[in-house]
Amino acid sequence: MKPIILFQVLVLLVSNCYSQKAPVSIIPQPVSLETTAGKFRLGQNTVIQINSDNDELRRVAAYLSAKLSGPTGYLMPVKIVKLFSKNNIHLTLSGGNKGIKEGYELNVTASGVSLTADSGAGLFYGVQTLIQLLPAEIESKKKISNLSWTIPGVKIKDYPRFGWRGILFDVTRHFFSKKEVKDFIDHMAKYKFNLLHLHLSDDQGWRLQIKSLPKLTEVGAWRPERKGKWNNTGKPSANEPKSYGGFYTQDDMLEIIKYAGDRFITILPEFDVPGHSLAALASYPSLSCTTDSTYAVNVGETIANWHSDGPIALLDNTLCPANEQVYTFLETVFTEVAALFPAEYIHIGGDECLKTFWKNNPAILALMKREGLKDMDEVQSYFIKRVANILKSKGKKLVGWDEILEGGLPPEATVMSWRGMKGGIQAANAGHQVVMSPEDFVYCDKNQGEWTAEPASSGMVRLKKTYSFEPVPNGIDEKLILGAQGNLWTEQIQNMRAAQYMLWPRGLAIAECVWSPKKSKNWPDFVRRVEHEFTRMDIGEIKYAKSMYDPMFRPAMEGDLVKLTLDTEVSNLKVHYSYDGSFPDNYYPEYTRPLIIPKDVNDVILVTYRNGKQMGKLIKMPVAELRTRIK
Ligand code: ACM
């Protein structure tokens, strides 16, 4: 063999080996994934072939065609065929013969792509996996020229661990338009979530048109605008214009439901009662026990003092359980809601009900006497049971936050456990179905890293903590755990970019916790795949947090000086720091062991690098702040 040919053969061998070994990155991690030799290349003439005229099959194929044709510039037509032909993408709805709900099988070889599923949902999830196998540029909003659109050879069998894979989006504290909600749905769909919980009423806004109760949106959807930090906002002045807010008409909501349904996502509506109801009370004040109050939609100012032994309300934000008008009101609301939403469940909130004003209220005391209710928890429970009956009469199931356990709950109620896992454990032990949503693992409104370097929020949940979330507690029957969801409350989130920053990459960790087998958890491999996804998000113009690259600060005293230990949750990082107020780069001193911060230093400024590339944020930490953190 001539040396030049030998060289070419060697290059080919090496590149083949490399391409076979290059790990593929899919989030959530599939149940089984085998990489195989060869790769398939999309081309100008690639066709998406489907095996029947089934409506869901056509819809999924059209979705794939639209997704691929934009960035590639290829036509990607969808064709119904009797026999599949080589060098194309084949989608098959297999007619239920495999029996794996929402599952799919995907085979990619040099001669084509074959995706088979029992259901439209399974096909859709297979399509998401296929898209993730393509180069990151497939996320581009523009056409990309001169790129080889190859898909590595794989054999994948996949199905979800849980049937409830949700994200809550709070559209009350800040309002997000119909277009923004659709974008949110598009991002969720990529990671095989199947439920969007829309929090549609709270003290700060009522967000859905109820045709028989027009004031809910004429009054309850609007408030004076505030831009600053939540809970620090000034009280509205008399006659201040109510310029901030918005709501979805029922037609808007039907459009959202359809858009989500086309992506196999169910919209779960939440109307939070009996607490969190100021927007409803501003619209219809007679629904309160305290009708002498002047109600207004809250702009973000404090309405309660939170003590460890329970909150004290500064004003009454509850619907009155002793007022029959309230049940007529809820009957009206839920009649329209039940007719609008195809979801099996309606979420009735039930959390953080401030009962301060119930305690001495004559109507409540009379109700307690009449119904034999011994305390305020039982008053709330009486209310929840009546709401459950209303929902039952509309053919809907009730789900509520774990406070609905207090005072007893209707047997058919499903509990969403947010104050840790304990409510979920208690509910499951009593035979109730449970959705796990513990704030210490999956609350996406909390900080992702060091406080001083993150947007304002309450509490902290690092990515690694979210990834460690296991929805089924030891000793609990897995069948009672319907699944789990992450919650994106928006008190401190005023726009979509900020929402994305808080949700990603924690949403990726949640997706993996609810889809992938428990035994496949692997933090270093997850980080590798998250980093791959970051590239795709950059190209897709999606904001995300890089907080996993920032260290956490662990100060202690060493004599009179502060000793600072830094903890990183991602490997292969170098931390560089300064003491002199200048901004460090990778030529500054490297952190290799705990720092003893010299006397008179005001701030430690640091940043993380990997292979000469800045990875984390520049963080300026006042030494005085470190001293306050030492117990
Ligand atoms: C909640 O976070 N109050 C459910």
Give a description of the structure.
With 631 residues, the chain is α/β, with parallel strands linked by helices. Helix content is 30%, strand content 22%. It contains 17 helices and 28 strands. It has an eight-stranded parallel beta barrel with strand order 8-9-14-17-18-19-20-21, surrounded by five helices. A seven-stranded mixed beta sheet has the order 1-7-5-6-4-2-3, covered by helices on one side. Strands 24, 26, 27 and 28 form a four-stranded antiparallel beta sheet that branches. Helix 4 packs parallel to helix 6 and helix 8 packs across helix 10. The longest helix has 19 residues, at 3-21. It is globular. Mean pLDDT is 94; it is low at 1-20. It binds acetamide (ACM). Residues 351-352, 401, 418 line the site of acetamide.
Strand order, largest beta sheet: 8-9-14-17-18-19-20-21
Mean pLDDT: 94
Q: How many angstroms does the end-to-end distance come to?
A: 74 Å
Work out the radius of gyration: 27 Å
Bound molecules: acetamide
- The shape is globular
Poorly predicted segments: 1-20
Strand content: 15-25%
Number of strands: 28
Structural class: alpha/beta
Determine the fraction of residues in helical runs and give it as a percent range.
25-40%
What's the story with the biggest beta sheet?
8 strands, parallel, barrel
Helix run count: 17
Properties at a glance:
631 residues; alpha/beta; eight-stranded parallel β-barrel; seven-stranded mixed beta sheet; 17 helices; 30% helix; 22% strand; globular; disordered N terminus; binds acetamide
